[in-house]
């Protein structure tokens, strides 16, 4: 029995987490962090980062995911599983953005 989206905020987040694929999360990650920054940090060519982000037919290589998770350890759990654990510093780009906006309401 699928979870209803009308079950509350907590369950909505669970539905979203389990429906996203790793590739979906990596595309969001690339859009939030930026192709150039990820390329410079990981050694993955910027054109390849763009292909991963924009071409849904592109296959994400395990080695690319490993490089992103290694260089950005705060996103590692989320990139691989879709889960976050803020108490242990495991966040998503959206949760980091939300924290910035809460701390500084004029930020965005």
User: What can be said about the biggest beta sheet?
Assistant: none
- Tell me the series of helices and strands, N- to C-terminal: HHHHHHH
Contiguous runs where pLDDT drops below 50 for at least 5 residues: 1-7
Distance between the termini: 38 Å
Look at the structure and give the mean pLDDT.
82
CATH homologous superfamily placement: lambda repressor-like DNA-binding domains
Q: What is the CATH T-level topology? A: 434 Repressor (Amino-terminal Domain)
Rg from alpha-carbon coordinates: 15 Å
Report the helical percentage. 55-70%
**Residue share in β-strands:** under 5%
Give the class from helix and strand content and strand pairing: mainly alpha
Our count of helices gives 7
CATH C-level class is Mainly Alpha
Please count the beta strands (DSSP E, at least 2 residues each).
Answer: 0
């Amino acid at each position: 029995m699928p979870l209803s989206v009308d079950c509350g905020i907590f369950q909505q987040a669970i539905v979203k987490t389990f429906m996203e694929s790793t590739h979906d999360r990596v595309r969001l990650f690339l859009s939030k962090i930026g192709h150039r920054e990820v390329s410079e940090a990981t050694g993955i060519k910027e054109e390849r980062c763009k292909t991963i982000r924009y071409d849904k037919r592109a296959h994400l290589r395990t080695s690319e995911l490993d490089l992103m998770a290694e260089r950005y350890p705060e996103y590692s759990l989320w990139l691989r599983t879709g889960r976050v654990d803020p108490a242990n510093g495991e966040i998503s780009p959206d949760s980091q953005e939300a924290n910035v906006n809460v701390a500084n309401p004029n930020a965005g």
